[in-house]
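testing teh design pipeline on a random one, pls ignore if ur not involved
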């Protein structure tokens, strides 16, 4: 009886490990596809003239559409940001929270990502760190001003801001089995003028 239970627990453990690995590999595949799509989209945009300020039309951007390229150069990491922060969107990359400001615009641009894939690296982000968003043929540089751990019921970080801000959110603790009980939040202020992306 004990031996049967041991085998059952081992099989269950292997199944859970396999499921986790499959989920990570699936996410990496989706992220690679988003990256290729972003490169194609950027090449097409380079042939067009840049708009003066408004990079996103006033119409609704569709869920899953590519919104920006997010980079943390010191940590040698970048991601393609998609519109929406639902399960399907977050498989492709970090998600821009709908109805928050778009990159470079006045207000609070909120981007969410998984702690076990895209945003685990946020634990290494320092105060004063530079974070770059490329969108619509323009490059925006933000400087990190706060790092905080909050309750998932605290929605203050989603509120609009009077100046251009970037808010990155992921679950916390970073190494936690099951639904994490807290959220890790990084806030950064826009410091660069609008200009062509490098």
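output:
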């Amino acid at each position: 009886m004990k031996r049967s239970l041991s085998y059952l627990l081992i099989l269950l453990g292997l199944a859970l490990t396999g499921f986790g690995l499959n989920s990570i590999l699936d996410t990496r595949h989706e992220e690679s596809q988003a990256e290729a799509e972003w490169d194609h989209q950027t090449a097409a945009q380079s042939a067009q003239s840049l708009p003066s300020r408004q990079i996103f039309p006033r119409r609704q951007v569709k869920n899953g559409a590519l919104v920006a390229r997010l980079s943390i150069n010191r940590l040698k990491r970048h991601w393609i940001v998609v519109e929406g922060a639902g399960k399907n969107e977050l498989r492709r990359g970090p998600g821009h929270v709908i109805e928050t400001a778009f990159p470079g615009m006045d207000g609070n641009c909120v981007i969410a990502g998984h702690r076990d894939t895209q945003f685990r690296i946020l634990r290494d982000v320092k105060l004063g760190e530079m974070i770059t968003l490329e969108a619509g043929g323009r490059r925006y540089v933000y400087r990190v001003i706060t790092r905080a751990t909050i309750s998932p019921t605290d929605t203050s970080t989603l509120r609009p801001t009077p100046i251009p801000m970037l808010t990155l959110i992921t679950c916390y603790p970073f190494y936690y089995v099951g639904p994490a009980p807290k959220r890790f939040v990084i806030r950064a202020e826009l410091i660069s003028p609008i200009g062509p992306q490098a």
